[in-house]
Amino acid sequence: MTDSPTSTADERWLATMWPFVHEQLPPSPGRILEIGCGPLGGFVPALRSHGYDAVGVDPQAPQGADYHRTEFERHRVTAPVDVIVACTSLHHVADLYEVVDRMADALTPGGVLVVVEWARERFDEVTARWCFARLAADGEPGWLHRHRNRWSESGESWDSSFQEWARAERLHTGQELERALRTRFDTRLLARRPYFFPALDGVTDADEQAAIDAGHIQATGIRYVGRLRAVTG
């Protein structure tokens, strides 16, 4: 999976996240389920090219035998999988604890969960202004353009405008995600990392990390790896 100057934001995101996802996996072959693979198929093509028996679940998944076009909550896992990958697909689910339980039930004993997520509570005004200053002036407006415009038109403070949107969308915070995951998984890795770079003009993952390290912005990306906790008693 490689990036190119003409890649879309989603393609740049997948290309940058792939090395992290890949290094968490057991040797192939193995059964992997990706939740929220999206219209590009997420990591499924790369996983299959590396010898894994991988399938993706998403209402907007591509057509094909490797995909199921439905919500994970409605998907029936017919055989346990070794790894579940969930990339920016958990912060907007209706019942977070139900989804965590379903993921745990779908894994083999000792199975691995790899999560890439967003701590939206860390998207403060300073970070927002840094992002908005780096948006492309031309091209198709993206989600950060919409946040910038909504804030400008609201006449409210950034916090009020953003929190009103987050409540309306019923988005879970990063803290809520981490708390829910701990109910069924033992944490192997939890790190804060860049999140916005694919939607910014000429900004790389390394550029955003440098701004984080310098204290200019918050690290809102979450990288999590957990192992299914054994049931005792």
Computed Rg: 18 Å
- Quick check: average pLDDT? 93
Number of strands: 7
Measure the end-to-end span: 44 Å
The residue ranges in which pLDDT falls below 50 over 5 or more consecutive positions are: 1-6
Portion in helices: 25-40%
SSE-based structural type: alpha/beta
The helix tally amounts to 8
- Major sheet size, sense and barrel closure: 7 strands, mixed
Task: Explain how this protein is built.
- With about 230 residues, the protein is an alpha/beta fold.
- It contains eight helices and seven strands; from the N terminus they run H-E-H-E-E-E-H-E-H-H-H-H-E-H-E.
- It has helices spanning about 10-25, 45-50, 95-105, 125-130, 145-155, 160-170, 175-180, 205-215; strands at about 30-35, 55, 65-70, 80-85, 105-120, 185-195, 220-230.
- It has a seven-stranded mixed beta sheet with strand order 3-2-1-4-5-7-6.
Characteristics:
233 residues, alpha/beta, 7-stranded mixed β-sheet, 8 helices, 21% strand, disordered N terminus
Tell me the layout of helices and strands.
Blueprint: H1 9-23, E1 31-35, H2 44-49, E2 53-57, E3 67-68, E4 81-87, H3 96-106, E5 107-118, H4 125-132, H5 143-154, H6 158-169, H7 174-181, E6 185-193, H8 205-213, E7 221-228
Parallel strand pairs: 1-2, 1-4, 2-3, 4-5
Antiparallel strand pairs: 5-7, 6-7
